[in-house]
Amino acid sequence: MSNKVILVVLDGLNLSVARQCLGYLNGLIASQQATLYPITCELPSLSRPLYECLLTGVCPVESGIVHNQVNRLSQHESVFSLAMQQGRKTAAAAYHWFSELYNRSPYQPAEDRFTDNPALHIQHGLFYHWDHYPDEALFLDAEYLRRHYDPDFLLIHPMNIDDAGHQSGLDSAHYRNTVRQADIILSDILPQWMAAGYQILITSDHGMNNDRSHGGTLIEEREVPLFVIGEHFSHQQAQIDQTDICGVICELLGLIHQKPIARGIL
Ligand SMILES: [Zn+2]
């Protein structure tokens, strides 16, 4: 059993579409290898504010990262900063806004796209700045980081589901089929991670609406899934808030931290 953690953030994934279209993940639930907890995302239901929420446990109105154009470093301890300061290895294959929140702002593609610096909070990074960057390539980027650096904490953040939602809306074949495509990619690599004993969380920042956007309080914008896989999870019924996910990851990594945590999940 390992203390290593992989966090997958499938950007813009609505809960009911996750239930309908992630066939492999729902198969893992049926065979009692995964558990799904519904989460109501914090507000506003926007990406950068909720990246900060997921990684620091601080909701947007408290963090000050209240919309996507607030481009500055996080002012709170994050999974990355706590892990790095306590001698754990960190890595991320993710949108460049994560680099801006935890490494350096603003992002300079020529400097920051490929990051390998033990002094940074995200020590090993492969960042992208195109919303259509293929999920398939992104997951391969993440596999490179995992195999090459063997990080204790690895963030994997593909963007195609959110991008499809902005183009075609929640109730569209394009959006649903993009989710199905992510499920196929996950079905290829999850068995390897599970065999290696990782603790795995698969969630989203926010959902999607039929106006091809998100940001407000509609249930379809706020309800997202949290799938958990691994022996350190209780796999019992529990109430978990989006602000608890950071603390749960810190516990799994064995870090000293002051973050809120939903104990029932562990
Ligand atoms: Zn979006």
UniProtKB/TrEMBL annotation:
InterPro entries cross-referenced by the UniProt entry: Alkaline_phosphatase_core_sf, Phosphodiest/P_Trfase
A single MF term (Gene Ontology): hydrolase activity
Superkingdom classification of source: Bacteria
PANTHER family according to UniProt: BIS(5'-ADENOSYL)-TRIPHOSPHATASE, ECTONUCLEOTIDE PYROPHOSPHATASE/PHOSPHODIESTERASE
Protein name in the entry: Type I phosphodiesterase / nucleotide pyrophosphatase
Organism: Vibrio spartinae
